[in-house]
Amino acid sequence: MAFKVYVDRMSQPSRAVIIFCKVNGIDFEEVRVDIMKNQQYSPEYKAINPMNQVPAIADGRFKLFESHAILIYISCAFPGVASHWYPGDLSKRAKIHSVLDWHHSNLRRGSAGLIFNTLLSPMRGIPLNPQAAKESEQILIKSLSKLETFWLKDSRFLVGCSQPSIADLSLVCELMQLELLSEEDRNRILSPYKKVVQWMEDTKSATAPHFEEVHRILFKAKKGIRERMATQSGKTELKAKM
Amino acid sequence: MAFKVYVDRMSQPSRAVIIFCKVNGIDFEEVRVDIMKNQQYSPEYKAINPMNQVPAIADGRFKLFESHAILIYISCAFPGVASHWYPGDLSKRAKIHSVLDWHHSNLRRGSAGLIFNTLLSPMRGIPLNPQAAKESEQILIKSLSKLETFWLKDSRFLVGCSQPSIADLSLVCELMQLELLSEEDRNRILSPYKKVVQWMEDTKSATAPHFEEVHRILFKAKKGIRERMATQSGKTELKAKM
Question: Is the interface score ipTM higher than 0.90?
Answer without folding.
Answer: yes
